[in-house]
Amino acid sequence: MDETQAVSALSALAHTQRLRVFRALVAAGPAGLTPSVLAEQLEVARNTLSFHLKELARAGLVTIEQQGRNLIYRAEYGHMNDLLGYLTEHCCQGGVCQASDDSHACIAC
To answer: In terms of residue numbers, what domain contains 25?
Structure first.
């Protein structure tokens, strides 16, 4: 992942509603969700949801698959993991990171 891709992904996630949508798709797993299910779960209007899904797709964070008359949206785990890797690439100045016991997050060495 390069800097431009990271900024695009972070920009897409820097909106409360898009972050909620992305987290719902991550929680849904590989099965994904239809826009109608997402709209119901998140209590958001479908036209608003459509705008946010397009932004997440443009940033490469979600994929769209047509199944008959339905669209299935899925989190793009590879891109998500690439973003996390980009953000932590130089953690601890390139040395071995230690994870804290409670959060599995990198702690300062």
So the answer is: 3-107
What single-letter amino acid sits at 86? Y
Q: What is the pTM of this model?
A: 0.84
What is the Cα–Cα distance from 102 to 109, expressed in whole angstroms?
16
Give first-to-last CA distance, the chain, whole Å: 25
pLDDT tens sequence for the chain (109 residues): 999 999 999 999 999 999 999 999 999 999 999 999 999 999 999 999 999 999 999 999 999 999 999 999 999 999 999 999 898 887 776 666 665 555 555 655 4
Q: What is the DSSP string of the chain?
A: --HHHHHHHHHHHSSHHHHHHHHHHHHHGGG-B-HHHHHHHHT--HHHHHHHHHHHHHTTSEEEEEETTEEEEEE-HHHHHHHHHHHHTTGGGGS--EE-TTT--EE--
Q: Looking at residue 63, which CATH number applies to its domain?
A: 1.10.10.10
